[in-house]
Design goal:
4 copies of one chain form a homotetramer. The first copy, chain A, is built from 9 helices and 18 strands. By secondary structure, chain A is of the alpha+beta class. The longest helix of chain A has 23 residues.
Chain lengths: ~350, ~350, ~350, ~350
């Protein structure tokens, strides 16, 4: 029932789109870790809307305010809490959303669960806005991982049917991505994607896409068998990002169509490090890191908010009707979701690293 | 760090392939639930090897023994524990596996984590054998769900490149599956799959596949936003089955290539029940059931155990070498994985239903 | 590692004495529960300092601000978060506390755990101030319990060697307590206690005491055997209040000196309700409520902050030295701890009630 | 709802007095820890009945059988499971217990929770027999703690009104205890206690008592503030032992009657180690170890099973009646509870040590 994730560290996310604030409590980070607030803000900026003409023009300042747990640039060892005030919450007839649920939004399922008390304004706790505290928690974990030589990088793998290049599964290079306002490996493909998004927007429609993420520098031996493996936990975290409908590691679903002789990753020594010649396992065997880069892809559905009129129901009069969603909406959520995927992965990896530290 | 899953119910799985026994502790099931042991055995039989010429001929009797928590056919309300003795554990030179890790098995990653103390015999805790206690726990949950009018059914969606028909996402019918020793919807396709598996086996190779699962009868309003949604938790559970590398709900990765106008599920009233005209959401919106059938697909990699010689390393002499895996192995794990997917899903759904019962 | 408690509901407490804010996240409260903010404020007022001449004169306004989860007076079903800003945080040489740990405070043990990064100001996360968010969470739970006919009431059982009357274990009446600014049953004894506290204060000393708490209206059958019993969980919660060093249920340690024939609670029918003739069990048998009033006592040590000079160490120069604690301090924390005990118990009881609601 | 305790390690206890077996699953113990099964058996022997004329003559062989997680004397890193078969389960009219609940047993509260499905035979999951798996888990943790130089020792502090000497709170010596079949510091007092128990038994009555426990060798800095402190977690664990009704740390309830100037523990350096001149804090400040010995006392009620006729109710005919408990019962559970308290404390301390190991 909780909006909480993690075992040795716990990230608890609270807030609703139009409540006074949204935020996160992060427990279990040891004392004395240097945290640069500017880096958190920069990371948040990567998911901010209004950065270009392909995302919603809504202006969210999204200034994180540390309430506790970080003092003079260092973690204190006790719970970290960070909030973002909700300022841009102009009044609007949200009761319409309650009455006429938007197709493929959570309005109807949330109504079934919470009834009339659900804070429907802006989607409430289901809003994509809740990924901001996820990114704050992720940005904190990323700074700690960085000191351990571990990086988490993601890019837009596809928008609609336009595919970016893939990471090299044996030696992914992501240096080019961080400076790119539109994070793709192949900038030509990136240009095509942007055109596709703008065209889609022009039609009042939306489009889905895929994010590919890699984790490098993670040593072998991190993770667990059964239910606390890297795959289990990254999946659990990543499905916390709205609109995610699929995840695959390594060769994933493509590997399901292959033979063992094609898909198996043979071992060899490079110096005294065990490596694999291919990385169809996505760096994870039996839930535990193999020492190869961890690789996974996350599928996002098209934003359900479209300007095109759709069929829906009137929950009060209990009859069929039509709905036309108004207002500014991202025609494609994928570019802004890239740091969210990184954040989710970073939280999980740090949690697993800490969990392995016992002796 | 734990081999445990669930919140209101908890399933903790223990055992190693060649330890004295494997088993599960299931906590949180209320008192007085009727549990038919014969049904548990029948369910286990569906994952048993040696049922036909396409699975390993190894004979595991897999007789579940209830240690506690069920008395005179009823749950007592206190922890249920069930074990299966490991009988077929003839001695063998398992140190070879420790020294020469098998490609795409967990031998190397487990060694990195556990060192020499890892019980490598038969794969230890990483063995597919550990899905037997998962199925026991699942079979218990399924009996309780059944009384609530909820069914969980899965079939082989593909073997290699041969695809079965799909469930009707609006009205999946699974009655034909339970009596089929090889659970496919389209028996002609099933015949092709079996031929493919036998051919693969003949080459000393293995092949992957996909399982499709549906949950019917689940009312709207079950599940949670953020990290405890149905998708999050089913993923966490399903990646506990060895060889799973991907999962997708509803239109999944295909939906990521679509427009919102194509992928959105429009609402309408059927009598006084809200339904959707399509089910690309796979019955889940915002982590919560919509009342439509829950649908997901799980991708399995080809069994890593193949008879073909492969490159590996000698962890003692720290040099490259070759390995040829001997013994009986399933050329395709997918048919036996079908009840495991159902079991994982059943545990999650019952957990979520109980969690929603507060007022 | 976490400042979190509960299973079906979770209360996570964050903040440091001098951080920007302190607060709590409360998850698992179902949607639609009426929450009166005024009642939360009134409850908080009962633990506020400066209400009379026996508590510290420091003025904390302690205005709770709801950030999420309550909308238009109703819980939304998603995480409730409430904070209190820390306003009265004037700068002071807190490095002295870090260097010269105060006897029987957590300064030294916290230093051993967190090192220099510990936010020592005002005691950081160890401050008694953190019981304010505990009281907020408790006040929310109490309002829900009240609608179920369940009350939680505590009084000062003793200050030093002055004892109040006890609750009648068979039929505790607490109506008189809530309106009393100094919550005792016997007001004459209360007057003696106040005198004792003032005398102690005059000497620059402090004094301990005991709080007795009763829970009435709780039906039989709530709680669990083993580690999730009412006793286990109330203890876990109550030791979260600074200065608690002991807890006992029913006849407690006195019962340990008795014979079974004296201590056993014999059953009888009152109408069709099973009751016991005595209540030495404190309403709990096997961790589960018996239907009789739940009764327990909590022992608080004297406030470690005293004005009398004490021996301590200089952690920098690593030598013995003296310390004299300055500033305003409660000579006795017990009166302000009364609502904290009620809050801790209320959270636990609501958690257990929800946990029992499955079928 | 679970019979599980711990965070970085988890101990899950299952079984009923007359089910096929009782046992424990212990997760989170790292690989490669040496575990001597003989030591587990010896530890279990300390809680075994029938060792002398003051405990029940019932013969339980209580032979622990390792099902998984320990291989060739080393932990494998994956879940440890150990069971004890229930052999001495002769049939008896347990329905009488269901119908006529025994005063101060859990029969009535369990009936309220579980109804008729509760496995009432021998007390089911509420039986003192369930402390055997607790002791197994504790014995495993104790062996690991021992290698870290940490000891956990308990003795009978009192039986009825006869008190043993106390541990020296500054330097407790427990070497004499382990070889004593009746674990007291002062053997003369021990003799008096035995006489008291035998006299009580002769009257068909039972008597309560107190156990004192100390943990030595624990460095400063282990534990947490708020709800995961050493006091919180030891309490949560210890109340899992049947008949426990109170716990106090350090000066405990006596400290509640003292002044700060009396109860505070002043610091001084002994060499370069910070020590305290007194140990009224019981080695714990703010939930975290101070480096001084951890000391606590646990109060046990008299065994509720007495041969003297008592008033009870007939739950079927819903009327008042009498009950006379037959069979062999411990007239005082305290001597056998001594290792149970050690076990509970050992599990908690190892859990906290592991939890602190992150960086």
């Amino acid at each position: 029932m909780s909006s909480e994730i993690g075992k040795t560290i716990k990230v608890s996310i609270f807030g609703e789109s139009h409540s006074n604030a949204i935020g996160a409590v992060i427990e279990g980070i040891p004392a004395g870790q240097e945290i640069d607030l500017k880096k958190i803000e920069d990371f948040l900026e990567r998911r901010a809307p209004g950065r270009n003409d392909i995302s919603t023009s809504r202006k969210e300042p999204d200034k994180p305010v540390v309430l506790s747990g970080i003092y003079e640039g260092l973690t204190t060892g006790t719970p970290i809490s960070v909030i973002i005030e909700n300022k841009d919450t102009r009044s609007k007839d949200y009761e319409k959303i309650r009455r006429y649920p938007r197709p493929s939004h959570a309005d109807q399922s949330a109504y079934a669960k919470y009834g009339d008390a659900h804070d429907i304004r802006g989607g409430g706790h289901f809003s994509g806005r809740l990924t901001a505290p996820l990114c704050i928690a992720g940005a904190i974990c990323l700074q700690i991982l960085e000191k351990k030589g571990i990086r988490v990088d993601a890019h837009i793998s596809s928008i609609g049917n336009i595919d970016d290049d893939s990471f090299d599964p044996l030696d992914p290079s992501a240096d080019m991505l961080k400076n790119r306002e539109f994070p793709v490996i192949n900038e030509e493909k990136g240009q095509e994607m942007k055109t596709e998004i703008l065209n889609t927007k022009g039609r009042g429609d939306s489009v889905g896409g895929i994010v590919e993420c890699c984790i490098t520098g993670l040593p072998a031996g991190v993770g667990d068998p059964m239910f606390d493996g890297i795959e289990n936990s990254i999946s659990q975290a990543v499905f916390g990002i709205p609109a995610v409908k699929g995840i695959e590691f390594g060769s994933g679903f493509e590997g399901s169509r292959m033979y063992g002789s094609q898909n198996n990753d043979e071992f060899y020594y490079e110096g005294d490090v065990v490596k694999t010649k291919t990385n169809n396992s996505g760096g994870i065997l039996g839930g535990i890191s193999s020492g190869m880069p961890v690789l996974f892809k996350v599928g996002f559905k098209p934003t359900p908010s479209i300007a095109i009129q759709q069929d829906t129901v009137d929950l009060i009069e209990k009859k069929n009707t039509k709905v036309k969603i108004e207002g500014r909406h991202d025609p494609c959520i994928v570019p802004r979701a890239v740091p969210c995927v990184e954040a989710a992965a970073a939280i999980v990896i740090l949690d697993k690293i800490y969990d392995g530290q016992r002796g």
